[in-house]
Amino acid sequence: RSSYSCCYFVLPCCYFDFHGKYSRRQSKKTQYREYLDFVAQVGFVCGFRVEEDCLRIPSTKRVCLIGKNRTYPPIEHALIDKQITEYINNRQTCPVVTHDRRVGFNHKDHSDVFKEAGSELPENETETAGTIWMPGFQPREKVEQIRNCASLPRDFVDDVVLSVANLLLSAAPQKSCSNMNGGNTNTWNQGESLSLKEVAEHLNKETLKRLKSEYGGLQTLLKNNHQVFEVLNGRVHIRDWRKEKPSRKTKPEVKRRLSAEAFKTRLCWFFLHHPDGCSLPSESCPYAHGTEELR
Questions:
Q1: Which of 19, 76, 78, 233 could form a Cys-Cys staple with 72, CB 3.0–4.6 A?
Q2: The pLDDT value given to residue 120
Q3: Do residues 64 and 164 share a domain?
C-alpha cells in the first residue's frame, strides 16, 4: 500500500494473520502450504501478480513470494486501496472466503472476495476504509530498542546478581568456609533454591520497575548470568560447576591444549564473591581466579 510502484519480497515463516496467530482452514494441505497460499492471497487481493520461488538457503522455510507487477492500472489505485482496507478489517472479525491456489488468478476473480469482505462491514468503517490501515496499527520503529537485559548498566546488573546470590546463600544453613583457591566438596555452600516470585519479593521497587521494562524481566537477567545462576522450572539455583557435564565434542590435540592455556577471558564470580570461593580448583575452572590468569 506504500505506492503503486511498490514491489515486495516476503519469506513466510511464523504462522500469523493480521491480528494474531493464523487459524487453519484446510486439513488437506500441510500447515506450511496453507499459510503460503494465504500470504499469496494477500498479495493477490492487494493487486499483485504473485510469483513463487525457492531460495537456496539451509532452512525448511525457504519458499518466497514476490510481487513485481500489478493486476490493475494506476487510475484504479484509490479504489483498490479501499477494497484492501475492507479485506483487512474483515479478517479481524470473521474468516474470508478462501480460494484454491492456481496459476493466473486474475483481478476479476478477486473482485468477489472484495465484495464479500466489504458487505458485512458497518457503514462508518466502509466510509473511513481509505484513510486507515487498521485500528490501533503502529509501525515498528526504524531502530529497535534492545530489551533483553543486555543493555542494562553493568553496575546495576552486578548489584542485582549479588543481591540474589546473597539471598540464596543466606537461605541455606551456614557452613564452614573453605580455602578460597581450591574450594571443598563437603562444605561448599550452594545455597537454597527460591521461586522467581520469592526472589522478586526481596528486591526493591525501583529495581523491579526497571526489570519489568525488559523482555522476560528478572528471569532473563538471571539466565543471562548463567555463570552464577541456573533457572529451572521457575526456580532459581546457584550453579554448582562441579556438576556441569564436560563437552562431548572431541577437539583436536592442538585446540585442547590452547583451550586449557589461553582462553580465560572473564573473572570467576565465585572466586570474587562467594564466601567459600569457587567450588573448582583454578586449573579446572573455565573462569579466571585472579587477574593474572586473564588472557
A1: 76
A2: 42
A3: no
